[in-house]
Amino acid sequence: MNRLWHYCRPLAGDSPRARIVQQVVFGLGLLAAALLLAAISEARAAEGEGVEVEEALGTMGAAAARQDGATKPAWGEGLGLSGEGSYVAPAKVSGASMSVWQEEAKITYDTGTVGVDLGYVTGQYAFSNVGRLPFAGQAPFERLSRLEAGLTVQGGLWDDISGFVGLRGTMGYEKALTARGLGGTALAGLSLPLGRQWRMTVGGGVSLTPVAVQAVPLLSFRYAPDSLPELTAELGFPRTEVAWRGGSWWGLRLTGGIEGGQYRLAEDNPAAPDGVADLFSARVGAWVDVYPARGLGISLGALYALPGTMTLYRESGSRLKTYDTGGAPGGALRLRYDF
User: Fold this and answer.
1) Which residue, of 5, 226, 332, 339, is most buried by count of CB atoms within 10 Å of its CB?
2) According to the lineage, what is the superkingdom (predicted)?
3) What integer pLDDT is reported at residue 211 of this predicted model?
């Protein structure tokens, strides 16, 4: 018995080995939860809900998380520039297939209590076997773009409880900017501690899109263990992330979240003239982050877009048809510089 106890002791109690095993198991559990949330998000898309609020929720979640000072070093406060390119391989769309090459550029300014961001996203959509789509042998669109802007205000309320308010606007279009593609979101919420290692962010708001007005929920739980400071995890909607900082110059991340948007189509669009295209999918990824110089971050990711939807609306706002889209692998490269 004593000999057996001798071999089991390293895994017992609060030993370093036991803590590492616990954190690894916990991280794998959060990854499984990320996949579950992505599947739930896809089910919401099947019900036809819009996803124009993705960036607004992501910004609010990041802003709330930064209030505890765990996600951003002091020298990173201020001006930031970022760019990203991603590719998703052909996925099935009603007998046809669609691949996507997307580019994004963003500028941010963060004082710690006030954050402002401006961004531009454009995607090139390559359809094959378009004869199987009901658009007279034409692709429903080839390029969709959107402009984004956001303002976030955050600060302490009492004790360790803090709050945030955010306003965000988007304008999605096919060929030319138009006010009819404008959407907006207003969000507010609280961030409060749940013990020493957990923090909960809860809130909500309302989003106005070109085709609907909808409620916006926000709920996330952030975990930062004292015994393993290299590990951080954020579990919630619409994004989940488990991150491991391997050293001063590299790190690993597992992510799950929502990708999509709503876009006002052109007058000569073959699928829905002057209508709206609503794209929705859940995406999971594995990332390697490298920090070769102070302020510079380079991220390389392997992605998988889960099955989603492509919904077309008439000019009046009534739904024309929803098409299921299949899953497909992809990849992304992201650059960021903080002054």
Assistant:
1) 332
2) Bacteria
3) 87
Angle among Cα 205, 48, 327 to the nearest 5 degrees reads 110
| All residues at 6 or more sequence positions from 272 whose CB lies less than 8 Å from its CB, including other chains | 140, 265, 312, 313, 314, 315, 320
Residue 157 sits in a domain whose CATH number is 2.40.160.40
Note whether residue 3 is domain-resident.
no
Q: Which residues contact 69 (CB under 8 A, 6 or more apart)?
A: none
Name residue 303's amino acid: L
Distance between CA atoms of residues 6 and 1, nearest Å: 9
Whether 6 is covered by a domain: the verdict is no
CA distance 249 to 273: 50
From the CA atom positions of the chain, what is the Rg in Å? 22
The band of 147, judged by pLDDT with boundaries at 50, 70 and 90, is: very high
Length of the chain: 339
| Sequence-distant (≥ 6) Cβ neighbours of residue 334 within 8 angstroms | 82, 83, 84, 297, 298, 299, 300, 301
Identify which of 17, 108, 10, 13 has the alpha carbon closest to the alpha carbon of residue 55. 108
Cis before residue 307, ω within 30 degrees of 0?
no
Please state the pTM of the whole predicted model: 0.78
3-state secondary structure (DSSP) of residue 24: helix
pLDDT above 70 covers a percentage of the chain that reads: 77
Number of domains in the chain: 1
- The strand ranges marked E within the chain are 78-93, 96-110, 114-128, 143-158, 161-173, 182-193, 198-208, 213-223, 231-237, 240-245, 250-264, 276-293, 296-305, 308-313, 319-325, 328-338
How far is Cα 330 from Cα 8, in angstroms, rounded to an integer?
44
The tokens describing 28, both together, are: 């794998």
